[in-house]
Amino acid sequence: MRWTVWLVAGCTVYGCGDSHEGARPDATDQGADASHDAIAVSDGRSGADGAPEAPRPGPRPVSSTPVAQGSLFAAPDGSGSACAEAAPCDLWEAADQASAGEVVFLRGGVYPFNSTLDLDTSGTADAPITFESYPGELAILDGSALDISDPAYLGVPGAFIRLRRFEVRYMPWQGVYISGTDNLLEGLHVHHSGLSGIQIHGGYEPLPYGAAGSRNTIRDCTIHDNSGAGVFDDEFANGGNSDGVSISSGEANRVEHCLVYANSDDGIDTWRSTNSYVGYSISHSNGIADGNGTGIKAGGASPSSGTTVERCLSYSNTHVGLDHNSGLLVEFDHNTTWDNERGYYGGNDTSISASIAGEGAADFGAGLETMNSWQRPGTLSFVSVDPTSPEFLGPTPGGGFEDIGAFAP
Questions:
Q1: What average pLDDT score do residues 70-77 get?
Q2: Domain that holds residue 314
Q3: Rounded CA gap, 170 and 309, in Å?
Q4: Is residue 111 included in any domain, yes or no?
Q5: How many domains does the chain have?
Q6: Separation CA 228–CA 96 (nearest Å)
Q7: Which of 140, 175, 180, 186 fits 167 for a cystine, CB–CB 3.0-4.6 Å?
Q8: Which of 177, 162, 37 is nearest to 103 (CA)?
Q9: Residue 10 pLDDT more than 70?
Q10: For the chain, first and last CA: distance in Å?
Q11: pLDDT-derived band of residue 19, with 50, 70 and 90 as boundaries?
Q12: CATH classification at residue 279
């Protein structure tokens, strides 16, 4: 039996074909990409009784919003203010016109950035504002004409905004910077930013959090090759401030079913946030230059507390697979690590349960540990340690470890 492998925006759960090339894009890219509509490309996996097993880590298909729901339309060569399907406007005009309940479709192609675009008009819980690639096409937001002296990014200071199914690449600072609340990022492909690919930060005051940078969800996204390596200043820190996903502050933010890899600092970092959630995600091959190289970092300076990490894979990072990083009341449940310097690093009040460590150095700290691979008799082995295999890091059947880790029923 085989585990499901998803194709999302041209990427599998193991990576994207151009992930390490780093070449600047051709300005003539058209962005028409029917494969951007995600599809499943495996026979899946079922339990002994034929019933579907628990969801697997990594991005899942993200379906398109029907064209009939579109109310505003933008195109790379759009102009005017009609913003109609037959007469699209540019992205900035569409963003200015968008109001609660509207769906803004971005026609395929490259949208060059020469400055930050802030989406500062808010939707509501019942009527969010949606920005999405036109069905069957791929919109690419591109910052390749800028350098690090231009602090440009796609900003989301508003609330109840949905960003769906488009690409953000080569932004000189963050790819997407969220300071607002209650937003959803779904099916995005964010890569080659100078700082973090996606950052949530609404400031460190007032406390308790909730008024800014809170209750945002990053779901089914692929984030990779974000790096400040080679830039030796306090902001870029020779790669030390470029995570895949950085939740720098805020309350109850979530990362679900994401693929995060090859970032210069950490894969996913919940830093000074409270009650963050990271689940069903894959983080690998992070740590370049002066970056820390942790797969999933679950805390940091005060008031960091309450991060939960479950059903995640973290492998081949230069430092730790999962690290509490001084966060309080951190919970690691049903995770799998492999080929990191160390699997888990917990604190005195960290809970690590039903997890697998494929490294020789499994854990460190004095927290509560229950039902983990290093606490069981027997020898842990995997069906495959080839990241391209659909059975990668699955415990060998009959070995006594199938009921724990990221792939447990």
A1: 98
A2: 1-16+28-63+100-409
A3: 29
A4: yes
A5: 1
A6: 31
A7: 140
A8: 162
A9: no
A10: 14
A11: very low
A12: 2.160.20.10
